[in-house]
Amino acid sequence: MEKTQTVKIQYTDFLETYTAHIQKNGDGWIGWIPEVPEVNCEEQTREKLLKTLKNQLHEILVVEWEAWCEQFEEDVNAGRLDPLFDKALEDLRAGRCKDL
Predict the structure, then answer these.
(1) Which of 3, 37, 4, 2 is nearest to 18 (CA)?
(2) Residue boundaries of the structural domains of the chain
(3) What distances in angstroms separate CA 38 from CA 33, 56, 61, 99, one per listed residue?
(4) pLDDT in tens, 24-58
(5) CA distances (Å), 59 to each of 29, 36, 37, in order?
(6) Helix, strand, coil shares, percent, the chain, to 5
(7) What is the model's pTM?
């Protein structure tokens, strides 16, 4: 197995850059993204590997985003964020906030 290379993958939907680790493995290539452990694959060429890594990254991030949105909606509907809202409103009325 050859030395591991790192490749930056720009994910513009979330304005993030991820670091893919890729490595020649016999006749093919393996790759993974440590920040998102679910993203890993093996392909025959370097180019195909990078494309597959980008596709897997997109799929995982979309699933995570949708789960976050669903959880947020549940928290709002259940009133779990009400104490934060009340505290923020109290701080605003007391003049403890500043414009950004």
Answers:
(1) 37
(2) 5-93
(3) 8, 8, 10, 40
(4) 999 999 999 999 999 999 999 999 999 999 999 99
(5) 21, 11, 13
(6) 45, 25, 25
(7) 0.79
